[in-house]
């Protein structure tokens, strides 16, 4: 569990760095030097450009909003910012970490569906970000404007929607979920101490998750 959440958070930071590279063309010279001096089998020997393009077969399709965005050289550059990524332990461990990273970022950016051409797992890196969710800040300060689909899914503003944004897949649309109730318990306690009302839609039990 702890390992999985670590992996997920490092996946997110690497994906974030990966994305930043495209915007700012960052270079990570110190890490790059470390890389060159310490690694005889760089990531590029495990993930060749050809393999990369075959894994993310549709990333440059016209239908993908990230078309042209996630190129191989930027991936390699991004990994240099995380010199331990895919570079710790034996070859099996390294490959497993890279596979896990690709799986996590593919899920976050997938354009696939069950019957998609080439199968559901040929569509990683189709979107630039996780499927768009509103920001928790906007929700809490009244700047969230639900779409018609959000309204139909009961995703209206309130603490429950923040829970939905953070972990809705596991906690929302479920009656009396213990984790969601624990968040509500904390929120009620702190709101009471601050002397403020908790507002409406505390619970996400009746909301569809994102
Ligand atoms: C990859 O993307 C980066 C950042 O946008 C860009 O500087 C570079 O030229 C691209 N490389 C290729 C081979 O398209
Ligand atoms: C929205 O909330 C109402 C009232 O709790 C519930 O009956 C309905 O099923 C909810 N809709 C969805 C899409 O979950």
Automatic annotation (TrEMBL):
Ranges for domain Glycoside hydrolase family 19 catalytic: 46-131
One Pfam short name: Glyco_hydro_19
EC number: 3.2.1.14
Enzyme class per UniProt: hydrolase
InterPro entries: Glyco_hydro_19 (IPR016283), Glyco_hydro_19_cat (IPR000726), Lysozyme-like_dom_sf (IPR023346)
Molecular function GO terms recorded: endochitinase activity
Catalytic residues in the record: 108
Disulfides per UniProt: 64-126, 172-204
Keyword annotations: Carbohydrate metabolism, Disulfide bond, Glycosidase, Hydrolase, Polysaccharide degradation, Signal
Signal peptide limits: 1-32
Highest taxon in the source lineage: Eukaryota
TM region(s), chain numbering: none
Catalytic activity, reaction form: Random endo-hydrolysis of N-acetyl-beta-D-glucosaminide (1->4)-beta-linkages in chitin and chitodextrins
Single biological process term from Gene Ontology: polysaccharide catabolic process
Name of the protein in question: chitinase
Organism: Carex littledalei
């Amino acid at each position: 569990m702890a390992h999985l959440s670590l992996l997920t958070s490092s996946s997110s930071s690497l994906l974030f760095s990966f994305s930043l590279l495209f915007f700012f063309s960052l270079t990570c010279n110190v890490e790059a030097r470390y890389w060159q001096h310490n690694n005889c089998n760089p990531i590029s020997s495990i993930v060749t450009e050809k393999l990369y393009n075959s894994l993310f077969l549709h990333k440059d399709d016209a239908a993908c909003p990230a078309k042209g965005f996630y190129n191989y050289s930027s991936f390699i550059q991004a990994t240099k910012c995380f010199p331990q990524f895919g570079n710790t332990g034996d070859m099996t461990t390294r490959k497993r970490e890279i596979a896990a990273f690709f799986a996590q970022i593919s899920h976050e950016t997938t354009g696939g569906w069950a019957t998609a051409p080439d199968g559901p797992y040929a569509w990683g890196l189709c979107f630039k970000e996780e499927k768009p969710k509103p920001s928790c800040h906007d929700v809490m300060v009244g700047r969230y404007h639900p779409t018609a689909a959000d309204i139909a899914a009961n995703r209206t503003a309130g603490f429950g929607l923040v829970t939905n944004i953070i972990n809705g897949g596991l906690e929302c649309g479920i009656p009396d979920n213990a984790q969601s109730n624990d968040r509500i318990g904390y929120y009620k306690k702190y709101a009471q101490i601050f002397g403020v009302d908790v507002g409406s839609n505390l619970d996400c039990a009746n909301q569809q998750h994102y």
